[in-house]
């Protein structure tokens, strides 16, 4: 059946593209590869390629980044319960995902679709014949697209591990070229080491070629590329702590500053602030509104990503009321819905993304300085500088009126940084990936507490640290293999 599908699929492509005519409205196949003819350049004018880049940026406003990014990073951790009524989210929350999970399938498609858009830009911008497009701008565009591709691959490699490494678009369909294009249309999984090598190369190119600053934080800058390099070097195995320090230093010295009041990050009066490094901007119009914000907060229906008892206890144990109140809002939902984890009279919502009007102009902060300062503390601690790490942790704690950390050994500081990142970055999509990269996910998740301090009963195993390859992708491509346990 798979072979029949491939023959029909390739035959249809050959028919559609037999004239090899070029078109600008490129359409992705299901695996994210874009197909075009080869008779001419894809982009003839500066406007063509700028429009293509805008389309790639636009994917930061799709369902992955508006909703699933936060489900994957927060509901998949001990910070939030799935909430709402979506069985696919329940599977993610409870670590019992299967290969037919609809979130898994759509996230795979979203990420590889954007990778396909970025590929077309990266591979063709330098040959755009328009004299109005300078060589400098071509390098900037390629750098911005390289950052976007790296961001998508960083999400994918953390979710699935080994994944297809697709770096080219198909230009011509013909029988003679089938041996060349077959691996692109039906790719195997590359090792995560190969994927990380490409992510680093893309981010290094971006850092060297994009603008230092942009009109707003929704565009790629040198600071955003350096911040992502720091995060990647802290995640790739083995962790490269000297590189993490190097790129954290580049960000910290790059003109960013912490806002004086933690709540200023979330009161919607300081968008694209001095602390923000990369921020998804919304205009709040019918064509550019953030519907995702209303998924997490409001009483019109039961919401997603409900704060967990374990997280609330962590805030209370630390007496961290400033960040707790900025991050969580309790409301009375009596008569609206019930929940086994919380009483109706004191029901919590994530409180960082507060503008739930429709259409909403609510921005999402994806990268900010406090994240990088704490990552630098982690790098210093792992290199034996516990005192230097403590100074950075205390910088973050002082903003929210907390006393200095008491951690004085490397192991104690590891736990102090883990706790600080949790309380500082709650509901920003980081917690699950932090626990994974530090090797702490299984121990922490399985010891999470539920209502009234009782064990919640998660059963996370080694296999649950990666998602299954979507069954729909396996059905189309027999060269793909499944992750263990699925």
Question: What does this entry show, briefly?
Answer:
The protein is mainly α. The chain contains 18 helices and six strands.
- Biggest sheet details: 2 strands, antiparallel
Residue share in helix: 40-55%
Q: Give the ordered list of helices and strands.
A: HHHEHHHHHHHEEHHEEEHHHHHH
Structural class: mainly alpha
Morphology:
globular
How far is the first residue's CA from the last residue's CA?
A: 22 Å
β-strand number: 6
Mean pLDDT: 92
The radius of gyration over CA amounts to 23 Å
**What is the strand content?**
5-15%
Low-confidence residue ranges: 7-28, 34-39
State the helix count. Answer: 18
Spatial ordering of strands, largest sheet: 1-3
Describe the overall structure.
The structure is a single chain. Helices cover 47% and strands 5% of the residues. The chain is mainly alpha-helical.
